[in-house]
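Students often ask why inverse folding is considered easier than folding. One informal answer: many sequences map to the same fold, so there is more than one right answer. In these notes we will look at a single instance of the problem. The structure comes first.
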């Protein structure tokens, strides 16, 4: 472990020299004059004065050496199509998308909202925005109208790029009606909506606003749009993530720091080199999709596989089939996907030649020991658990085989990655914890390159949300509990806040509660995350009705439950739908009115609810027990 420890030490103690060296991985049109400006803590500005461009580094820079090599490999088992785009093809498509946006008036600093499924146009438009210096905001296709409207209001996009439909399990899922509803609900109107028509669902075009992309693309297919060189700290994108309030936070990322951090991680963490093939099965709507479907591999001259489909269709060997066909070197997936595979015939794991595959990376949610071990033994490949967040953009804790191969331990995402001065801090005292002592996982600022620069349009919220958790100490809180064992291996022990993680999707319970409360029959509600064998966690809702007597009617309970679930689906998308909506007469609260979520979770999981000295009405807990 000596090498990886020394590497980490250098990255913290000799921070500027370390990152100045790593910065050589990318093209700088204008060299930076200062590696780090930390004159206004906790805001860190990396590679000050340097001018660069993410699209240039991901596409143009590789055209000479890799023009005819695969760059984007699109596999869709939803529409049974596979397309390999070379770097030259990618360049053509990105330029056509950029010329289209330009024709619609998009200039540097404008926001472009991308609401697309896993189709190549999502990557084309992200890179096109990067080329123009426009700020993209990709919204996960599984989100519904209300989520989308909130993001339109906050980001105020000039243009929205969307489609007629996505597809799941072979069935089309219409996007356009949701988009129309969202635009109607929001107070900001985009000037133009560009639609990629896949021919999967009928779609109405609003005259004067909506445009079919096909003719625009055809017209611009030979365009060459000049790269807009951006100062390293200009915003590249906004990606919304859930927190403890009903309003998602727009995580804002920079340009130069992000490019450098991702490029370095491709080698040190993911063991990749130019020409390799990388396959991340995440959706572009999440941070992994941004960093490791689109930007990371392409910046490092690697090909990336973009997959539209589920891990079990046409059968549970599809991931392995893709790896065999395209000679994939590294797979990045989520524990939930692997837990799903575990239920299928183990022979499927051995049907394909996986000799190209070096390692498997799993992230986004806790990886339980059994699942990690099962996969590693079944495939005979190392399985690496990564821990990170939308906010950081790349791993905080991980093994780093590109620095040094060290033994991993299932249940632990290994140790801090270079660049992260990670700590475990005692919430009450603000002091660092000792070995085996549980505390909050934190990062001593400055945050490294690639991590969020601020919350879009709200510096004050950035400081308040992330840097004010510890008495007398300005330190970034991850809002995760953790500990470090005697040997220096780190363990993540769950969230400190009300955020839950369903199948790797981060959801704010507050957002779901707000949706439950919009049902006219509901007075108040509590939504909690409960352990689930497959999905890690699932949401469970407890609702107090305005008039509990309505439940006396026959069938009322089921009808209300179904109605409330439908409201949630319409506002927050199917991912947020709770397993159950249970009705109670009151919620267990402290005397100061805070819902005792931990006690509710404990009861749902069949555990002891613990210390209840602050409870207002102990009878409320009995009701939860009875409802269960
Ligand atoms: P997101 O921002 O959606 O990527 O969610 C980040 C959160 O997911 C973290 O704060 C953790 O709570 C959880 N998480 C991500 N990766 C891991 C991991 N490897 N082990 C445990 N929890 C994880």
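Output (designed amino acids):
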């Amino acid at each position: 472990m000596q090498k990886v420890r020394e590497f980490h030490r250098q990255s913290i103690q000799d921070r500027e020299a370390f990152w100045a060296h790593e910065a050589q991985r990318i093209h700088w049109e204008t060299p930076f004059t200062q590696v780090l400006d930390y004159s206004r803590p906790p805001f860190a500005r990396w590679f000050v004065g340097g001018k660069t461009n993410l699209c240039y580094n991901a596409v143009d820079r590789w055209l000479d050496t890799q023009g005819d090599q695969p760059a984007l490999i699109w596999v869709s088992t939803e529409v049974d199509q596979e397309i390999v785009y070379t770097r030259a093809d990618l360049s053509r498509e990105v330029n056509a998308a950029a010329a289209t946006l330009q024709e619609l008036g998009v200039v540097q600093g404008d926001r472009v909202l991308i609401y697309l499924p896993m189709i190549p146009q999502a990557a084309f438009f992200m890179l096109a925005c990067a080329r123009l210096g426009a700020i993209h905001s990709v919204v996960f296709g599984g989100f519904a109208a209300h989520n989308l409207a909130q993001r339109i209001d906050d980001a105020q996009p000039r243009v929205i790029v969307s489609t007629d439909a996505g597809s799941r399990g072979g069935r089309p899922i219409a996007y356009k009606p949701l988009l129309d509803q969202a635009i109607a609900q929001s107070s900001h109107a985009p000037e133009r909506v560009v639609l990629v028509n896949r021919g999967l669902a009928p779609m109405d075009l609003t005259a004067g606003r909506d445009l079919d992309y096909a003719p625009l693309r055809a017209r611009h297919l030979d365009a060459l749009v000049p790269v807009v060189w951006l100062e390293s700290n200009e915003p590249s994108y906004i990606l919304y993530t859930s927190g403890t309030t009903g309003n998602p936070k727009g995580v804002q990322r920079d340009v130069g720091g992000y490019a450098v951090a991702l490029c370095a991680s491709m080698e040190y963490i993911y063991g990749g080199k130019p020409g390799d093939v990388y396959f991340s099965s995440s959706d572009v709507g999440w941070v992994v999709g941004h960093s490791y479907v689109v930007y990371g591999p392409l910046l490092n001259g690697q090909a990336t596989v973009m997959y539209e489909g589920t891990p079990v269709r046409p059968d549970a060997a599809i991931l392995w089939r893709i790896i065999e066909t395209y000679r994939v070197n590294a797979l990045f997936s989520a524990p939930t996907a692997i837990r799903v595979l575990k239920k299928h015939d183990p022979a499927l794991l051995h049907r394909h030649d996986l000799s190209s595959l070096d390692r498997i990376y799993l992230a986004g949610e806790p990886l339980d020991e059994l699942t990690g071990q099962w996969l590693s033994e079944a495939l005979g490949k190392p399985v690496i658990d990564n821990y990170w967040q939308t906010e950081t953009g790349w791993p905080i804790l991980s093994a780093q085989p590109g620095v040094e191969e060290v033994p991993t331990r299932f249940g632990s995402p290994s140790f801090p990655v270079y660049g992260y001065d990670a700590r475990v801090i005692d919430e009450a005292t603000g002091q660092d914890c000792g070995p085996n002592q549980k505390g909050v996982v934190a990062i001593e600022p400055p945050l490294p390159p690639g991590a969020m620069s601020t919350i879009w349009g709200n510096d004050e919220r950035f400081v308040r949300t992330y840097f004010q958790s510890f008495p007398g100490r300005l330190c970034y809180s991850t809002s995760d509990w953790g500990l470090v064992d005697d040997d220096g291996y780190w363990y993540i022990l769950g969230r400190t806040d009300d955020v839950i993680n369903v199948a790797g999707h981060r959801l704010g319970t507050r957002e779901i509660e707000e949706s439950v409360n919009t049902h006219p029959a509901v007075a108040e509600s509590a939504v909690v995350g409960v352990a689930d064998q497959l999905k890690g966690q699932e949401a469970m809702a407890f609702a107090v009705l305005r008039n509990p007597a309505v439940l006396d009617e026959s069938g009322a309970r089921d009808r209300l439950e179904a109605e409330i679930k439908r409201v949630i689906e319409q506002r927050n998308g199917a991912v947020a739908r709770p397993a159950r909506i249970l009705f109670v007469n009151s919620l267990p609260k402290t005397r100061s009115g805070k819902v005792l979520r931990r006690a509710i979770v404990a009861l749902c999981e069949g555990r002891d609810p613990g210390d209840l000295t602050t409870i207002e009405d102990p009878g409320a807990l009995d009701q939860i027990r009875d409802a269960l």
